[in-house]
Amino acid sequence: SPRRAVRMGWPVLLLLLGLTSAAEGGQDSGWGSRAASILAVSNGGPWGDWAWPEMCPEGSYATGVSWKVVEPPQGAAGDDTALNGVRLLCSVPGAGSASSAVQSQSGRWGRWSEPRWCPHQGHLVGFALRVQAPQHQLLSDEVAATDARFACADGHVLEGGGSEWGKWGSWSPLCPGAVCGIQTRQEPPGGFGSDDTTLNDLRLLCCKK
């Protein structure tokens, strides 16, 4: 698109290599030694950089999720950003309703939704993204990720209730253990008159239980 350019520098490349190493059983200063594999999808947006990953506290796993709800449509003259962030809610198995929230970087717009939980204190095992593909038009309003849904171990799906723009991609691989970390790809605010997209892509960390 004439309004944008994809940015993929050496720091991002090195981070990707580090994540690959962690997924293969090595240690990485971001994900740590708990890493079993990285869950990713192929339809994420192309803008912004990967933020630093965040992990559930030791011994806990993601049992719920909250979305930074998309801001309302801004109209023909406004700049829409759609989905701005995702927050994992982490619980220790058998600890009842106690939980802690972790998130990677999120955008400045929108509000956090009420938490949604896997039934019977279940845990997350995968996700899918709804993304508007780049429009490649001079006056288009790019929004990138518009919604996310998450799969629980029992097959229950947690829906975000986001925008209907874009298309759902395929599910990520399913985690044989439990999700315990999150990393987002965010485009930072561009200032007055810019075309902001905020959340573009997402990764989840799969840990052994």
TrEMBL record:
This is VMO1 protein. It comes from the Eukaryota. Gene3D superfamilies: Vitelline membrane outer layer protein I (VOMI) (2.100.10.20). It holds the Pfam family VOMI. It comes from Eudromia elegans. Keywords: Signal. Residues 1-22 form the signal peptide. GO terms for cellular component: extracellular space. InterPro entries: VOMI, VOMI_sf.
